[in-house]
């Protein structure tokens, strides 16, 4: 039997808050003026504030330090963009760049307008799905879950976070290399190892933790001596991973990620198939990511230039079969366009 009852508005607001707080994902609602009217604890926890401190404040002021646009004129907040332009987003990958955060927060964002009875926009909401952790869990198949329990996954997360904090250039780099490497493995018909590829690629530069910061982040050219120091990171990384039992599969892979197909790489001068397959895959993904990202000393290559360079070095630096597969993957799926 249906029962009619009314809920008064303050109670409703309280219930809504309770429901929002059940979510691990970030929920924020702003009114027509861009003032925060609701924020769940997941969002406020991420920002290191209490929800009560945020309610009634301008989102742009409170979260983005008063900045509405980035230097290219794009909205920093998809939520503000939705409010001001009416453009709604569904599951787009975004990065929250807030002065309140130590590093960018990667999430999958859905925004929308809330309209009043007359159809006018009364408020806008954003739902930010936390990808930083979801991504790893998503990519971890049952098989690997048996080996890598949550605790080990957290260790991987801590490692990648640690590398990112030390090395400006590596921030986000490992995640992208991991994605490319996993796509290569899948394209090569190696789904069984694709999870291992992903994890190995995430931690491939973990040894950079042991490289002095002034060398790691040196803006100019490295001297020969400094280059020798940087080169130690693959061995250092392998030695770090050796200390964690469940990472034993990763040790040889990380050690060999700078080996070259022709035997002129380091640290062991392995050649061809002596180099672990996953290291050969990471090497291609790593080079492609580096070439297609801006560096302080040069602009990024176009996708075409980067692919041409991979092709040029196939057989010398890279495994030609992997390069072939990668080029097919990028061209065949039109995937390169989304990167450019
Ligand atoms: Fe490396």
Automatic annotation (TrEMBL):
<feature type="domain" description="HD">
    <location>
        <begin position="170"/>
        <end position="291"/>
    </location>
</feature>
<feature type="domain" description="PAS">
    <location>
        <begin position="19"/>
        <end position="60"/>
    </location>
</feature>
<dbReference type="InterPro" id="IPR006674">
    <property type="entry name" value="HD_domain"/>
</dbReference>
<dbReference type="InterPro" id="IPR013656">
    <property type="entry name" value="PAS_4"/>
</dbReference>
<protein>
    <submittedName>
        <fullName>Putative PAS/PAC sensor protein</fullName>
    </submittedName>
</protein>
<feature type="domain" description="HD-GYP">
    <location>
        <begin position="148"/>
        <end position="340"/>
    </location>
</feature>
<dbReference type="InterPro" id="IPR003607">
    <property type="entry name" value="HD/PDEase_dom"/>
</dbReference>
<dbReference type="Pfam" id="PF13487">
    <property type="entry name" value="HD_5"/>
</dbReference>
<dbReference type="Pfam" id="PF08448">
    <property type="entry name" value="PAS_4"/>
</dbReference>
<dbReference type="InterPro" id="IPR035965">
    <property type="entry name" value="PAS-like_dom_sf"/>
</dbReference>
<dbReference type="InterPro" id="IPR006675">
    <property type="entry name" value="HDIG_dom"/>
</dbReference>
<dbReference type="InterPro" id="IPR000014">
    <property type="entry name" value="PAS"/>
</dbReference>
<dbReference type="InterPro" id="IPR037522">
    <property type="entry name" value="HD_GYP_dom"/>
</dbReference>
